[in-house]
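dude i think i finally got it to work??
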Amino acid sequence: MVGHYPAEVVGFALIGVAAGLFFHVQLQLGRVGSTSFTFFKHPFVSNWGAPAEYLRVRKQYGWSGWPVYCLWPCLLIGVVCLVFGLLRP
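look at this
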């Protein structure tokens, strides 16, 4: 599969990494009782403001900022790779 569809595999992998990072951010905020942790209460209305809140409170709890800094590039590059792979002949 990787030999025939490398762009699609990379795209799906990067989108999966972005989802994992988003879940990590949501989980960290939920552990400290953040009010923006609504992903599990309303799974279809996810809170896209969570990364910004994570960056606001990360110094207070000693968290690293890399999950948020890697989240958006992984998602963007993953979508671009996936679309490129699906549209090429």
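Helices lie at 6-31, 50-61, 66-87.
im so relieved honestly
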